[in-house]
Amino acid sequence: MAGFLTKLFKRKSDQGKITFRIKGSDGTYNLTYTAEEKKTLQNPAVKNKWKYSYKCKPGDYYYFSVQANQRKSEINLKAYYNGKLLKETNDKGDYVIATVSGTIS
Q1: Mind listing the domains of the chain with CATH numbers?
Q2: Phi/psi of residue 64, nearest 5 degrees
């Protein structure tokens, strides 16, 4: 019984939150990302300083790609797991794309 309870509570403590943050030039961005339901979604016109979070756990796959909808743009994209930086990418230019992906460990 104790082993079952340990596993039950451990599973709850393993669950966390992944957060994606976009910062960049003024204008809009086209997003493609994997959401909490494990579905790939698109959002064609989000504004600068956009943020999205969902619950996840170790072993879950994440994917987030952002493309500027204008020329001469800069993008900074960060992915956090439970507040700790997982990945960061930057790019600048015409209609630039920044992508982060991986598996939560």
Answers
A1: 16-103 (2.60.40.2880)
A2: -150, 120
